[in-house]
Amino acid sequence: MPSRNVFESNEVCRGRNIVVPVVVFLSFLFFSLGAPGSMMRTRARLGFTLIELLVVIAIIAVLIALLLPAVQSAREAARRAQCVNNLKQIGLAILNYESTFSALPPGRKDCCWGTWQMFVLPYLEQSAMFNGFNFNGGRGVPEENRFLRYEGFANITVTGNRLNVLTCPSSPLNAPWRSEPLRRLGIGPMLPSHNYAVNYGTTDIVQQNLFVGTPQEVRWFGAPFTNLYLSPVNGGDRGGAVTLASITDGTSNTLMAAEVLQGIGNDLRGFTWWGDAAGFTSFRAPNSTVPDALYSAAWCNPIRQNPPCVGPTDGIPQGFAARSNHPGGVNGLRVDGSVSFFKNTVNLFTWRAVTTSQGGEILSADAL
Q1: Which of 260, 266, 265, 257 is nearest to 195 (CA)?
Q2: 228-268, pLDDT tens digit by residue?
């Protein structure tokens, strides 16, 4: 922690940086217009000459050009600090949930019947929203009966709300979805996206091993968040509750959550009411140029402002990278509640290692 003397010296430096240009500017005016005594001895001047005016305008323009980047940098620093604070609040909420139920919340309840952010609403001081969400939907509910989904009539009073604690101020805002019965009529509330997703591990949203037996093989070695329902994957079951004791890599060596960008238009990235978008995977590096992959290209919006995105392909598994508008990287929340900044240039194998919960990797402190 810097000492008070360091802060005072920084303030002095800032003061000097302001005073010096002002002194130069006043000196210029003094010598241009002449000293008060000399003005009386010569002829009186009624104003600036054209040259003097142009020089003053040029100096002001230079000062503004120097000041604007500093102002923008200060604003981005404030936005990043707010983002870090949001992640810490999310970490506290998830760990309070774990203290109550002795397990982390589910990452998702299949596609459409709840995600981690619904389960932790009471710990984000949103008990009314939690009580308003109907968790009775799930497997066995007929597909045509959509009113118990996140988009259904039973839940849109909850999912139609944007939460500031789940929104990064550096990201554009988006609301890409309507309740299905109302979407066809073009009426009803638009459901908003958010900016934080939990860790689904190293591979894809199904959490299966990828490209087995090839040089591109990527294996899934556990993650803090899975599907609530058990599903057969790679000869075993994925899903169910994840306990802190099962995170054998250590809570300080395992990511809990990270930033994601809200897609613009009908793009579903960041739409964390939906199970697929509620998590990120480390198959791609932070802010990777490798495209994200959705189950359908219809929900990728290929405009320049959006990160790259494709529909299902054989070479790119379905999932989403950690992404942000912060220069150089993304903020990530570890399971122990601490927040770190991960650079875009982080080694991909190191990035994948910090998202496994049972990989047994050895991570150097200076590797991230």
Answers
A1: 260
A2: 998 777 656 688 889 999 999 999 999 999 999 999 999 99
